[in-house]
Design a protein that fits this description.
The complex is a heterodimer of chains A (166) and B (396). Chain A is an all-alpha fold and 166 residues long. Chain A has two domains: 2-126, NADH-ubiquinone/plastoquinone oxidoreductase chain 6, subunit NuoJ (Four Helix Bundle (Hemerythrin (Met), subunit A)); 127-166. Chain A has helices at residues 2-22, 26-46, 50-75, 87-111, 128-136, 140-162. In chain A, helix 2 (26-46) packs antiparallel against helix 3 (50-75). The radius of gyration of chain A is 21 Å and the shape is globular. The mean pLDDT of chain A is 84. By secondary structure, chain B is mainly α. Chain B has one domain. Chain B has helices spanning 3-36, 52-62, 73-89, 117-127, 129-138, 142-173, 178-184, 206-219, 231-234, 244-269, 286-303, 310-329, 331-360, 366-395, and strands at residues 97-102, 105-109, 188-189, 193-194. In chain B, a hairpin with a 3-residue loop joins strand 3 and strand 4 (193-194). In chain B, helix 1 (3-36) packs across helix 2 and helix 5 runs antiparallel to helix 6. Chain B is globular, with a radius of gyration of 22 Å. The model of chain B has no long low-confidence stretch (mean pLDDT 84). Classes of the chains: A mainly alpha (166), B mainly alpha (396). The interface between A and B is medium-sized, with 22 and 26 residues.
């Protein structure tokens, strides 16, 4: 059951991911990206990380992508005009893709030789309780540093947006 | 009994009850608004217009289903489907009552209890904005686009105070499961004040309730925040180009969201299925007394009819109420019916509040709406959360 669900949603994620690049209209690309986020959330859920799954949907699918779609609608961006691809990209594109995939596989296998296979249901520390405890004890410093970083980004956005007013 | 069979039966019952409620909620809304505006409201189809929802459904199904030219067909067709799916989805985690025993099986009056229940509802509500936004964009119409833009900006803005207001009672309950949140609110102070979140020490959640309700009005696009479909500015907003059942899907989605939000308020703040005062003080007889009183009033007006047809319809209504009162007195059924009664009563009172406010308040201006969300609601919600956190840390 878990494996079948995994295969279905992994396939959806990959197809949607390819669709993001292939589609010519920005709205269609954005919706495909929402599909990727949604199927990733299901994969997290299958692995036992239910809090992460909910956060994935709330933050990425529900907030960030809504802003993307909002901006695309606001600017009323039209369909992209296709130009012919460069000769280099036509010839080397697909071989390079497979080379990089192979390299990635090689590095993953050699950097983590002792890594065990994933078992569905083997991980049970994905609840909100566990995540919260880990964030506020073991990872307290990175967590606080990231929050300061985000605060700086917000201030930067406010400063940039106010420049025209003066 | 098989787990799947039981779940299937429960899902079918909940879906049937929810859809009937949606149809009749619209009748209730038209009647209540009519009486606020000193009109009669629907009265031609059936006694007191009671068959009006049925007539509306037939009308909507048989209307011409028009797809305008130059729309983005795929999105135009999927948007209403998406909206109604997301609107109906979140009812699946709402607990309606405690455990019940049927045919030797014990089950909860809830479709499923997720340990991330609240997050599930928030996730579904945050995704549901796509239905409206994409409908507005795909219609290829200026007014629709404006409606879609307004709704996405509005729903993102009000989602923040909504989530903050939800977080405060969670600090008291210490769990994300909706069933456990209700169970945590059981019991009474001094023997008669219920331990609901709005009364609970160390920090009564009355401010959270107010913030949550205001944000909920904006999230469900109801007056005074119904800017996405403001008739005098945008024709009908995001659903201008929709007709027949596709329009009905948006209509049902709005009412379904309203029911969900009221059920959530009941669960989080008003003690869910728990009674107003303890059973030892006679709260078990409240539903029977309420129905008896309603039946007596109907019978009195039936015997002294104002209009000729009242002499027949009101005694029938009275008999129905008396039967309901009798059903609530059967001890074998009380265990299942009393929680349902309290849950429905609280949710219904909140739904009435929604309709009441629609009949009372004018619409905000768009800049007022945004300024209110960011300059007032958000800071107040953060402050409320901080104070609640401090009180919980100090006194529990």
């Amino acid at each position: 059951m878990d494996v079948i669900l995994f295969l279905i949603f992994a396939a959806i994620a990959v197809v949607c991911g390819i669709n993001v690049v292939v589609q010519s209209h920005p709205i269609s690309s954005a919706i495909s990206l929402i599909g990727v986020m949604g199927s990733l959330a299901v994969l997290y859920l299958l692995l036992g990380a239910e809090f992460l799954a909910a956060a994935q949907v709330i933050v990425y699918a529900g907030a960030i992508m809504v802003l993307f779609v909002f901006v695309i609608m606001l600017l009323n961006a039209g369909a992209e005009i296709r130009h012919g691809r460069a000769l280099l990209a036509q010839v080397l594109g697909i071989p390079l893709l497979f080379t990089f995939l192979g390299l990635m596989l090689y590095f993953v296998q050699h950097m983590f030789p002792g890594a065990a296979d994933v078992h569905f249901g083997g991980f049970t520390h994905g609840t909100a309780l566990d995540v919260g405890r880990a964030l506020f004890t073991h990872y307290l410093l990175p967590f606080e540093v990231v929050s300061v970083l985000i605060l700086i980004a917000i201030l930067g956005a406010v400063v940039l947006a106010q420049k025209e007013m003066e | 009994m098989n787990f799947f069979l039981l779940s299937l039966i429960k899902a079918a019952v909940v879906a049937f009850v929810l859809l009937t409620t949606l149809a009749y909620l619209q009748w209730v809304e038209r009647k209540v608004i009519a009486h606020i505006q000193v009109r009669i409201g629907p009265s031609r189809v059936g006694p007191h217009g009671l068959l009006q929802p049925l007539a509306d459904v037939i009308k909507l199904i048989t209307k011409e289903d028009l797809i305008p030219p130059y729309v983005n067909k795929f999105l135009y067709l999927t948007a209403p489907f998406f909206a109604i799916t997301m609107a109906l989805l979140s009812i699946s985690v709402i607990p309606f009552g405690g455990p019940i025993h049927i045919f030797g099986d014990s089950t909860w009056m809830q479709l499923t209890d997720l340990n991330i229940g609240i997050l599930f509802v928030l996730a579904v509500s945050s995704v549901s904005v796509y239905g409206i936004a994409l409908a507005g964009w795909a219609s290829n119409n200026k007014y629709s686009l404006m409606g879609g833009l307004r709704s996405s900006a509005q729903m993102i803005s009000y989602e923040l105070p909504l989530s903050m207001a939800v977080a405060a009672p969670l600090l008291l309950a210490n769990t994300l499961s909706l069933r456990q949140i209700v169970e945590h609110q059981s019991g009474y102070y001094l023997g008669f004040i219920p331990r609901w979140s709005i009364f609970q020490t160390p920090m009564p959640q009355i401010f959270s309730l107010i913030i949550f309700l205001i944000a909920a009005f904006a999230e469900t696009n109801r007056i005074p925040f119904d800017l996405p479909e403001a008739e005098n500015e945008l024709v009908a907003g995001y659903h201008t180009e929709y007709s027949s059942m596709k329009f009905a899907a948006f209509f049902m989605a709005e009412y379904s969201n309203m029911v969900t939000v009221c059920a959530m308020t009941t669960t989080l703040f008003l003690g869910g299925w728990l009674p107003l005062w303890p059973a030892s003080a006679g709260s078990n007889f409240v539903p029977a007394i309420v129905f008896l009183l309603a039946g007596a009033i109907a019978l009195y007006h039936g015997l002294n009819p104002v209009r000729r047809r009242d002499g027949f319809t009101l005694p029938v209504v009275a008999v129905v109420f008396f039967l309901l009162a009798a059903v609530f007195l059967i001890p074998a059924l009380q265990g299942a019916l009393l929680p349902l009664f309290w849950f429905a009563a609280k949710t219904g009172a909140l739904l009435f509040l929604f309709i009441w406010i629609r009949g009372t308040l004018p619409r905000f201006r768009y800049d007022q709406l945004m300024a209110f969300a960011w300059k007032f609601m958000f800071p107040v919600a953060v402050l409320n959360l901080l104070v609640t956190g401090l009180m919980v840390a100090l006194f529990s």
